[in-house]
Design a protein that fits this description.
Blueprint: H1 36-46, E1 59-68, E2 87-96, E3 111-119, E4 122-129, H2 142-149, H3 160-168, H4 174-181, E5 195-196, E6 201-204, E7 210-219, H5 228-237, H6 241-251, E8 257-266, E9 292-301, H7 306-311, E10 324-325, H8 330-346, H9 421-429, H10 432-446, H11 452-465, H12 467-476
Biased composition (Polar residues): 1-24
Family: Belongs to the catalase family.
Organism: Paenibacillus aestuarii
């Protein structure tokens, strides 16, 4: 930290003569409007908080690098994955999902796991969670889902009635609910959890051949979770426990690391696989599509300024580089728009010019002006295309790979509705004591729900996944498993 004496200045660089007393008309007179230093301080203070994120409001971040450890160039032309040993700087932001900026770190909630790769072809954002699946599979349901996780508009309290009503009416949520209510619903630290891209993406190689992929970041620290009572204690005593742990670990040189693996599925397999491979509420069996190592991510530097780096960092699943493309996943398709649009509202249309978001390569586009333009605004360069003056132009070499679409334009649901097999398989994979804690967590979360109708509807989903599971929850809630047709 710099300790030399420096002049305090205004934002326009003028030295400040008195930062302790405002200008007044005499010792007891009213404050003068000509005190521009006072006015600037107050006006800036009023604007020091950008609107917090609607979701993932509270987070922690760190800088590091990603190093390729396995040659995958046969599957993607992305340059940052082009050769073993190649390193790319990264910034990662971890976060809770539902809570506000001042909420506790150790609540039962998924964790955001967003990685920004500063590649030589532009920034690539992999915006996922610490879970391989999600609660819903169509973006049209996302605002409704998040509303259930937020506060009641009258009481301003969390509303378990809304939470379980929505989940019970959305059986596709069962897989993620199972993970959330299990031991993994409260990670011990941000270092001791896996990360996932969750969605299916497409890799395309230099020959234009494609393959479907799913991303898995496996923590080298091992998976550790918090006991429910300890988590509640920490939430009261140190609500910033996870942020503090990550900062301190990096500060003392205990750099957390993750191995990145992908599952690969041939394009043709998507037509016949027993689960829809683009349904983000489902996983691909690792027996069918084994994990293939790609590289290693290490976090080795803390932010210098939380607001400038962690709070103003913006991530979008639509920030692709050549060789990585979207899939037909309906949840992903909605996120391609929603994330970038959220940043344009929250941080401004020029959020990408801020240092934490700025690519390491030159940006050449015709976007100009707007709030908080922090670079040269394109200077005197050509500001339209096509043009006859040598301005930036598109290149056919970077076109998105062609893909086939069929059918009528319609509001079409997914054609696979087995929401119980994978959730039941996960339940049966748990040890007996883990199943007991899962049941206990669910029961405690459902007890405040006012309507038995909602409880019974949710119990029927647990029962369909595994009869033992549904029966155990019903008994603890003093209810009978509903008659199932």
């Amino acid at each position: 930290m710099e300790t030399q004496n420096r002049h305090l200045t205004t934002s326009w660089g003028a030295p400040v003569g008195d930062n302790q007393n405002s200008l007044t008309a005499g010792a007891r007179g009213p404050t003068l409007i000509q005190d521009v230093h006072l006015l600037e301080k107050l006006a800036h203070f009023n604007r020091e908080r950008v609107p917090e994120r609607v979701v993932h409001a509270k987070g922690a971040g760190a800088h590091g690098y990603f190093e390729v450890t396995n040659d995958v160039s046969a599957y993607t032309k992305a340059r940052f994955l082009s050769e073993v040993g190649k390193r790319t700087p990264v910034f990662i932001r971890f976060s809770t999902v539902a809570g506000e900026l001042g909420s506790a770190d150790t609540v039962r909630d998924p964790r955001g796991f967003a990685v920004k790769f500063y590649t030589e072809e532009g920034n690539y954002d992999l915006v996922g969670n610490n879970t391989p699946v999600f609660f819903i599979r169509d973006a049209i349901k996302f605002p409704d889902f998040i509303h259930t996780q937020k506060r009641h508009p009258q009481t301003h309290l969390k509303n378990p009635n809304a939470v379980w009503d929505f989940w019970s009416l959305s059986p596709e949520s069962l897989h993620q609910v199972t993970i959330l209510m299990s031991d993994r619903g409260i990670p011990a630290t941000l270092r001791h959890m896996h990360g996932f891209g969750s969605h299916t993406f497409k890799w395309v190689n230099a020959d234009g051949q494609g393959i479907w992929v799913k991303y898995h970041f496996k923590t080298e620290q091992g998976v550790k979770n918090l006991d429910v009572e300890l988590a509640a204690k920490l939430a009261g005593e140190n609500p910033d426990y996870h942020i503090e742990d990550l900062f301190n670990a990096i500060d003392k040189g205990d750099f957390p690391a993750w191995k990145l693996y992908v599952q690969m599925m041939p394009l043709e397999d998507a037509k016949t696989y027993r689960f829809d491979p683009f349904d983000v509420t489902k996983v691909w069996s690792q027996k069918d599509y084994p994990l293939i190592e790609v590289g290693r991510m290490v976090l080795n530097r803390n932010p210098d300024n939380y607001f400038a780096e962690v709070e103003q960092a913006t991530f979008s699943p639509g920030a692709f580089v050549p060789g990585i493309e979207a899939s037909p996943d309906k949840m992903l398709q909605g996120r391609l728009f929603a994330y970038a649009d959220a940043h344009r509202y929250r941080v401004g249309p020029n959020h990408h010019t801020l240092p934490i978001n700025k690519p390491v390569v030159e940006v050449n586009n015709n976007q100009r002006d707007g709030q908080m333009r922090s670079d040269r605004n394109g200077g005197n360069s050509i500001y339209y295309e096509p043009n006859s003056y040598g301005g930036a132009a598109d290149s056919a070499a970077y076109k998105t790979a062609a893909f086939e679409v069929t059918g009528s334009a319609d509001s079409v649901p997914y054609d696979h509705d087995d929401h119980y097999t994978q959730a039941g398989d996960l339940y049966r994979l748990l040890r007996v004591e883990e199943r007991g804690r899962l049941v206990n967590n669910i029961v405690n979360a459902m007890k405040p729900v006012e309507k038995d109708e909602i409880k019974l509807r949710q119990i029927s989903h647990f029962y369909k996944a595994d009869p033992e599971w549904g029966q155990a929850i019903a008994e603890e809630l003093g209810l009978r498993v509903p008659q199932l047709s």
